[in-house]
């Protein structure tokens, strides 16, 4: 790797080749409030910020895990990369389909472009639902901790994750899984040359514990140890988040839900189909309840249904397909006739029967809407002036992460 090596252009952006390892981290569900409340137990983060930079950036809407991780690794919003949720409704097939297969990705990733340019790339994700999207067309290590024990050289580029880390992989509902994910990254860096490492945690802790709570601070203290290890290893480190997290409850602590499919059907829109793109196999996190929904209707019902939804207390925005596609840069063919966003403390459901609420009876913290859009971006080096201005403006995106890391950091 020398200065003479040509930069890498992918998806309309040009990235300088890293001269030291680049580590991009997506801290699932981490708003700035978590860092602030844990400041006393995060000495390494304080040290990194003092020498480097921190600012607020914008996540993509819907503020969900897969759309934001895919945006980060492509450098593009959903309209261009195609991934706007965990689920969408395929109107041609008349089926609700999961969007975690790489076939749904409409552009290459930065990770695949770097690996094809001869750089060594590695990806570690806590949740397996992201692994194949992140690893599309990429050579190198690509593993999920959820399936660490099943990893093979052929499929994942590594077979001995558990032996390398030195303890069994935690389960998906164990707070430790995110720490294990980051620790795996540290071990990979120690083991051999890596030019670009992407690490993506899971948000079980943030779903269950608010900023400043004992459990949240214990988690962030552990995270801080890893920040310290990475920083001392001399890498260029950049961490952001896929979305924030807010309480979505009534004053009595019960989940504050608007079941909009039931509501529309009661009001005469019998064909209404509501898709909740937050729906995924990890229902203990959120019961498939978030602050974003998309609605499919008969064409001549769209305007009346929009008006009916706009009257519902707790719903703050109802957009037509075209309006939503424009405003949030979403792929029009993968959203419904309407896009609905609820307010900071309200979530959207289909019908009461459709959801399993047993795991969120005593509290619900979730995301998906506009109030989980602001997330931190922290780097362990100072920024070049243009990038410092962009970060301070608050208008940069979380999916600018690799632009910041490759082009924005001072050597
Ligand atoms: Zn997430």
Architecture overview:
The protein has 411 residues and is of the alpha/beta class. The protein contains 17 helices and 19 strands. It has a 7-stranded mixed sheet with strand order 4-19-10-3-9-7-8, sandwiched between helices. Strands 13-14-16-15 form a 4-stranded antiparallel sheet. Helix 6 links the parallel strand 7 and strand 8 (141-144). Helix 2 (43-51) packs across helix 11 and helix 9 packs parallel to helix 11 (214-232). The longest helix is centred in the middle third of the chain and has 19 residues, at 214-232. The two termini are 15 Å apart. The structure holds zinc ion. Residues 28-29, 65, 203, 242-243 line the site of zinc ion.
Strand order of the largest sheet: 4-19-10-3-9-7-8
Residue share in β-strands: 15-25%
Largest sheet: 7 strands, mixed
What Rg do the Cα atoms give? Answer: 21 Å
The chain-level mean pLDDT equals 94
- List low-confidence stretches: none
Number of strands: 19
Euclidean distance between termini CA atoms: 15 Å
Anisotropy-based shape: globular
Q: Give the helix level as a range of percent.
A: 25-40%
Count of helical stretches = 17
**Ligand roster:** zinc ion
> What structural class results from the helix and strand content?
alpha/beta
Brief synopsis:
The protein is an alpha/beta fold.
Please describe the structure with a list of short key phrases separated by commas or semicolons.
17 helices, single chain, alpha/beta, binds zinc ion, 411 residues
């Amino acid at each position: 790797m020398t200065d003479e090596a040509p930069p890498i252009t992918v998806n309309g952006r040009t990235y300088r080749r890293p001269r030291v390892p680049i580590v991009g981290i997506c801290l699932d569900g981490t708003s700035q409030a978590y860092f602030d409340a844990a400041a006393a137990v995060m000495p390494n983060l304080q040290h990194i910020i003092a020498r480097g930079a921190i600012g607020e950036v914008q996540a993509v809407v819907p503020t969900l895990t897969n759309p934001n991780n895919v945006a980060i690794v492509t450098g593009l919003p959903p309209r261009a990369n195609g991934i706007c949720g965990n689920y969408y409704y395929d109107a041609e097939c008349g089926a609700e389909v999961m969007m975690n297969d790489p076939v749904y990705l409409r552009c290459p990733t930065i990770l695949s472009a770097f690996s094809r340019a001869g750089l060594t790339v590695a990806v570690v994700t806590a949740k397996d639902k992201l692994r194949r999207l992140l690893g599309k067309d990429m050579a190198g290590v690509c593993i999920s901790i959820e399936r660490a024990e099943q990893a093979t050289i052929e499929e994942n580029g590594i077979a001995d994750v558990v032996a390398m880390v030195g303890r069994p992989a935690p389960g998906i509902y164990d707070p430790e899984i995110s720490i294990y994910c980051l620790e795996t990254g540290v071990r990979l860096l120690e083991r051999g040359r890596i030019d670009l490492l992407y690490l993506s945690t899971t948000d079980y802790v943030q779903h269950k514990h608010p900023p400043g709570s004992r459990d949240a601070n214990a988690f962030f203290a552990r995270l801080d140890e890893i920040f310290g290890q990475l920083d001392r290893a001399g890498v260029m480190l950049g961490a952001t988040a896929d979305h924030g997290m807010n309480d979505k409850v009534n004053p009595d602590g019960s989940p504050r839900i608007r079941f909009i499919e039931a509501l529309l059907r009661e009001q005469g829109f019998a064909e209404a189909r509501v898709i909740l793109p937050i729906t995924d196999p990890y229902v203990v996190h959120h019961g498939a309840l978030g602050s974003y929904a998309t609605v499919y209707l008969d064409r001549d019902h769209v305007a009346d249904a929009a008006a009916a939804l706009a009257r519902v207390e707790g719903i703050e925005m109802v957009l037509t397909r075209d309006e939503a596609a424009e405003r949030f840069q979403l792929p029009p063919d993968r959203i419904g006739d309407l896009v609905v966003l609820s307010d900071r403390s309200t979530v959207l459901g289909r019908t009461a029967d459709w959801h399993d609420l047993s795991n969120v009876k005593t509290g619900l913290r979730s995301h998906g809407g506009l109030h989980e859009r602001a997330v931190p971006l922290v780097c362990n080096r100072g920024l070049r002036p243009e990038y410092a201005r962009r970060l301070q403006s608050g208008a940069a995106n979380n999916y600018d992460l690799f632009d910041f890391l490759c082009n924005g950091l001072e050597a």
